[in-house]
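Journal club prep — side note

Before the paper discussion, L.F. wants everyone to see what a predicted structure for a comparable chain looks like in token form. Sequence:
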Amino acid sequence: MAFHKTYRPYIPAGRRWYIVAEVAAGLLICLFLFTGLDKLYNYHQFKDALGKSPLLVDIANVLAWSLPVTEIMIAVALFIPVTRKVGFKATIIVMLVFIVYLSYMMAFAPKLPCMCAGLLESLSWKSHIVFNFLMIVLAILGIVASGKRSSAGSRAPPA
């Protein structure tokens, strides 16, 4: 009677970190490209929603184009291996700003305008905050994985 050993491919540690960094970057690229392009596509609706926010009414015009452009720039930074760590750090900063904004609005504004795209529109405000925290964790994981990858014998220069 022959027993078959289960095949478990060996993935070297450096390669595993590479995969983690690539997946984290890929997910964040999809998020930022989707939301940034959606805001530009629906520019007038996005600008109107920003104008309804008591905190952003004075800067709504500038924010209406600078936020989607920033999101697209972060996606580009995450796509280019040399600038990937900068993209991960920018992700953390942007998500923290969103969390602070949402927390303030939840505490002081009776009616919150939603400027989200796609499935994010269906999330509650508390779920938005949890989602943003998860994106921060993903970005931190990407930074750690990028560092491990470059120190594990990779021929790529550290970012």
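L.F.'s comment for the group: The radius of gyration is 19 Å. Keep this in mind when we get to the figures.
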